Amino acid sequence: MRHLMKPLDFTTEELDQLFDLADDIQKNRAKYAHACDGKILATCFYEPSTRTRLSFESAMLSLGGQVLGFASADSSSAAKGESVADTIRTVSCFADICAMRHPKEGAPMVAASKSRIPVINAGDGGHEHPTQTLTDLMTIRSLKGRLDNFTIGFCGDLKFGRTVHSLVHALMRYDNIHFVFISPEELRIPSYVREELREANIPFEEVIDLESAIGNLDLLYMTRVQRERFFNEEDYVRLKDFCILTKAKMKKARPDMLVLHPLPRVNEISVEVDDDPRAVYFDQVQYGRFVRMALILTLLEIKV
Ligand code: NCD
Question: What atom of ligand 1 comes closest to residue 47's alpha carbon?
Answer without folding.
Answer: 3
